[in-house]
Design brief:
By secondary structure, chain A is of the alpha/beta class. In chain A, 28% of the residues lie in helices and 20% in strands. Chain B has helices spanning 84-97, 109-120, 153-165, 179-189, 195-203, 231-237, 260-267, 285-288, 290-304, and strands at residues 15-21, 24-31, 38-42, 64-68, 102-107, 125-131, 206-209, 212-215, 244-249, 273-278. The chains are: A alpha/beta, B alpha/beta.
Chain lengths: 235, 305
C-alpha cells in the first residue's frame, strides 16, 4: 500500500507496511519506522527488512527517486530530501514515537532530520550505502574532474513520459559538502534532547560522521541491517 | 492598466525569446547585432533583466547584449528549489544559446554566479565583469536587523522545514494597493535609486491583478538551506582562469561594497584582476551610473576580446 504525500508541488510516494488501521493513524504502542533509502535507490530497497519491524513502516521515495515526482527545476540537495522526509513525518500521528533508519544519503538525511526534530524522532539508525560520504567537509575548488562532470550534467534531459528510474541529476548529491561543524550541530541537538543515534558498525567513517559521533549519544549498531533494526526498535 | 513607462536612456530589448535550462524556462532579452560578440548579463537577487535597459543600449553598437531573468525572477519560470549551482548552469545555458563564446557580466548575486560560470568554462568565456557581487560580509547582510540571539543551525533548519511543510500554500506576495505603494517599498530598501527609475524598473518586475500589484519574483527565491562559509569565496575565485574586472561603487549602502580588507582578501588569488570604483554610485552600479559602467565595460572588452 502506498501513501501520497505532498511537498510543495511534488507528490511523494511512501510505501506503507504492517499497517493495522489507516496508515499513520494513532494506534498501537509499537513504534513507527520511517525508512530513507540511499542515493539513486528507492523504497523498494527495504522490502526484506520491513516484516522484521514490530510496528508500522513508512518507506519514502525521495523526490527524483522511485515512484515520487522529479523535482521541478531539479535542484536536488540533501536538505530538500530532509524536507521530503519531514513532510511524511508531519502526516504521522503519535508524537515522539517515530524512529528513522537511513542508508547512504538517507543516513545523512536521517541525522539532519533527527537533529531538527528531536521532539518527533526518538532515534535514528545510520547505515552504509550510496551517498553516505558526500563530497567531504570542504569544497574542492581545484577538482577539475568534478567540475567537468558537473558541466556534463547541465545537458541531462528532462523526464520523458513514463520514464522509470531516478533523475540522473540526483547523483550530484554525491558531491554534497558536509562541514564538520554542521554535522556536529545536529548531533549535539540529538544528544541534548536525550535522543539516540545508532551507526552501522561496518559503515565507513567520513568526516561528518566522525564529528557527529564525537558529540555523544551515539552507539554502534550490529553489522547486519536486520539486527541493527532490532537494536533500533529496542532503544 | 498602467501604461508602459519610459525613462531617459532606457531602451527596450530588440529581441526576446525563451531558453530551457534544467527544468526552467528562462526569459531572455537582447540588444545589438545578433552576429556581434555576446555579453551575457545576470542580475541580482529579487531584480530582473530589464534592470539592464540603460546599460545595454550603451554597449549595443559593438556587442550583442544578452540579459535574462534568473529562474524564479521576472518572466522566467518558477521552480521548486533554488540552488546556486542551477543558477550558474542557467548562465551557461544562455551563453550557449547565444553562440557559446563571449563575456559575462553580473550584478550582486549575478556577479558571483557569472564568476563561477567562467570558472566552469575557461575556454568559452573571454572575461568577466562583476558589479559588486563578491558575496555577503562574513556576518551576513542582515546582521544589523537581528534583535534576538542567533539560533543554532538545527533550530534554523527546523524553521526551514516548517516553511517547506507549507510550501504549497505560502507562495504569493501580498498585493499592494497601487503601483506607487510598490515603488515606496523598494525605495525604502534602495534609497539611492530614483523614484523615476524605480517606476520604470518595477513595472517589469511586478504585475497587476484583481487585488492590486504583486511582485513577479517567486517568494521562495533565496529560501534554500545548506552549509556555506564566507571563507570558501576567495578559494573559489582563485580558480578563475580568465580576466576579471571587479567593480564597486564609492558609496556604501545596505548591500555594499564590502570592507576593502575583506574584498581584497577574496580577490587575492585572482590571476588577471582589474579593479574599478565608480564614484557616486552605491550597489546598483549599472542602474545608478550606466554611462560610467558602460565605459568600463567597453574598455575591458576592447582589451580582452
Amino acid at each position: 500500500m502506498r501513501l501520497q504525500v505532498q511537498h510543495g508541488r511534488v507528490q511523494l510516494s511512501v510505501r506503507c507496511a504492517n499497517a493495522e488501521t489507516e496508515p499513520g493513524a494513532e494506534s498501537a504502542s509499537a513504534p513507527k519506522l520511517l525508512l530513507l533509502h540511499e542515493l539513486l535507490g528507492s523504497s523498494d530497497d527495504w522490502g526484506a527488512l520491513e516484516p522484521l519491524w514490530p510496528g508500522e513502516v513508512f518507506a519514502l521515495d525521495f523526490c527524483g527517486h522511485g515512484a515520487s515526482d522529479w523535482l521541478p527545476g531539479r535542484g536536488y540537495t540533501p536538505e530538500l530530501f530532509v524536507a521530503d522526509a519531514d513532510c511524511v513525518l508531519a502526516t504521522l500521528a503519535d508524537e515522539g514515537t517515530v524512529r528513522v533508519a537511513g542508508a547512504g544519503m538517507g543516513a545523512y538525511v536521517g541525522l539532519l532530520l533527527a537533529g531538527a526534530r528531536p521532539d518527533r524522532i526518538h532515534a535514528a539508525l545510520l547505515l552504509p550505502g550510496r551517498g553516505f560520504a558526500g563530497g567531504g567537509p570542504l569544497p574542492r575548488h581545484d577538482d577539475v574532474a568534478a567540475r567537468e562532470a558537473w558541466l556534463a550534467g547541465i545537458d541531462t534531459p528532462e523526464r520523458k513520459p513514463g520514464e522509470p528510474g531516478p533523475d540522473p541529476l540526483v547523483a550530484r548529491c554525491d558531491g554534497d559538502i558536509r562541514p564538520v561543524d554542521y554535522a556536529e550541530a545536529f548531533a549535539e541537538a540529538i544528544a541534548g534532547a536525550n535522543r539516540r543515534l545508532l551507526v552501522g558498525s561496518t559503515a565507513e567513517r567520513p568526516a561528518w560522521l566522525t564529528a557527529a559521533m564525537a558529540s555523544g549519544g551515539v552507539a554502534d549498531a550490529p553489522d547486519d541491517p536486520a539486527s541493527a533494526l532490532r537494536a533500533l526498535a529496542e532503544l | 492598466m498602467r501604461e508602459e513607462p519610459s525613462f531617459p536612456g532606457a531602451v527596450a530589448p530588440a529581441r526576446s525569446y525563451r531558453v530551457h535550462s534544467l527544468g526552467a524556462e528562462l526569459q531572455v532579452h537582447e540588444w545589438g547585432d545578433p552576429d556581434a560578440l555576446p555579453v551575457v548579463c545576470a542580475h541580482g537577487m529579487f531584480d530582473h533583466s530589464r534592470g539592464f535597459d540603460c546599460l545595454a543600449p550603451l554597449l549595443a553598437d559593438e556587442l550583442r547584449v544578452v540579459a535574462f531573468d534568473a529562474r524564479g525572477h521576472g518572466d522566467s519560470g518558477w521552480v521548486e528549489n533554488y540552488t546556486w549551482d542551477n543558477d550558474v548552469a542557467d548562465i551557461i545555458a544562455v551563453l550557449r544559446a547565444a553562440g557559446g563564446t563571449g563575456f559575462l557580466l553580473g550584478h550582486s548575486k549575478g556577479g558571483g554566479q557569472v564568476l563561477d560560470a567562467a570558472i566552469a568554462l575557461p575556454d568559452d568565456v573571454l572575461g568577466v565583469i562583476d558589479l559588486d557581487g563578491f558575496g555577503p560580509p562574513p556576518e551576513g547582510f542582515d546582521h544589523r536587523r537581528r534583535s534576538e540571539p542567533e539560533k543554532s543551525i538545527p533550530e534554523r533548519f527546523a524553521q526551514y522545514l516548517d516553511f517547506r511543510r507549507g510550501a504549497r500554500e505560502n507562495r504569493s506576495w501580498r498585493p499592494y494597493d497601487g503601483f506607487d505603494a510598490l515603488v515606496d517599498r523598494r525605495s525604502q530598501q534602495n534609497p539611492l535609486l530614483s523614484r523615476d527609475w524605480l517606476r520604470y524598473f518595477l513595472y517589469y518586475g511586478a504585475r497587476e491583478d484583481a487585488d492590486g500589484w504583486r511582485w513577479k519574483v517567486d517568494p521562495h527565491c533565496g529560501s534554500g538551506f545548506g552549509p556555506w562559509k564566507p571563507d570558501w569565496i576567495g578559494e573559489s575565485y582563485a580558480q578563475l582562469r580568465v580576466p576579471l574586472l571587479a567593480v564597486i561603487g564609492s558609496v556604501a549602502d545596505t548591500w555594499g561594497p564590502l570592507p576593502e580588507d575583506i574584498l581584497a582578501e577574496r580577490l587575492a588569488g585572482v590571476q588577471q584582476l582589474e579593479r574599478a570604483t565608480v564614484e557616486g554610485s552605491g550597489h546598483f552600479i549599472h542602474m545608478e551610473k550606466p554611462r560610467e559602467t558602460a565605459a568600463l565595460v567597453r574598455d575591458f572588452v576592447a582589451r580582452h576580446r
